[in-house]
């Protein structure tokens, strides 16, 4: 058994066929995806609670589907970071420091919510694409698969949201 001591704590080394340097870069990219996903989750849940107007029912249901899916995805992303041997960020402060998605400072109307969620989903797509590079470089199929799934989900979500904005 290969044991290392870090800050006086013994732990078993991660030996999954990916170097520590690669695992660290992958975990850093995944942490950004996690932060963006979490802030998107909060934004979507907020909009679910607060949407009003003639599109209320449709958007209320759509936002619920989206934040429910995000809740599961957030857990999977964090667990992948842990499987790589690193601590997953888990505080709002940590997320805010590394996220590309910001909080709302106002109370948007329904179609502004849709526009902002479209933009936020597209941001998660860009963040996931950046995170793919170190995973590809390390032949980390598990992370590649996870990120590919996130790209698929967020692309479809952005398309569906964007459709509300077209005439």
Topology, please?
Layout: E1 3-6, E2 9-12, H1 20-50, H2 56-83, H3 92-98, H4 110-137, H5 141-165
Antiparallel strand pairs: 1-2
Helix pairs in contact: 1-2, 1-3, 1-4, 2-5, 4-5
Order of helices and strands: EEHHHHH
- Spatial strand arrangement across the major sheet: 1-2
Unreliable stretches, pLDDT < 50, 5 or more residues? Answer: none
Total strands: the figure is 2
Q: What's the architecture in CATH terms?
A: Up-down Bundle
- What Rg do the Cα atoms give? 18 Å
Shape: elongated
Q: Helical segment tally?
A: 5
Q: Major sheet, described briefly?
A: 2 strands, antiparallel
> What is the CATH class?
Mainly Alpha
CATH homology superfamily name: Ferritin, core subunit, four-helix bundle
Strand content: under 5%
How many angstroms separate the termini? 63 Å
| Named CATH topology | Ferritin
Number of domains: 1
Mean of the pLDDT scores? 94
Instruction: Return the structural class.
Output: mainly alpha
> Which bin fits the share of residues in helices?
over 70%
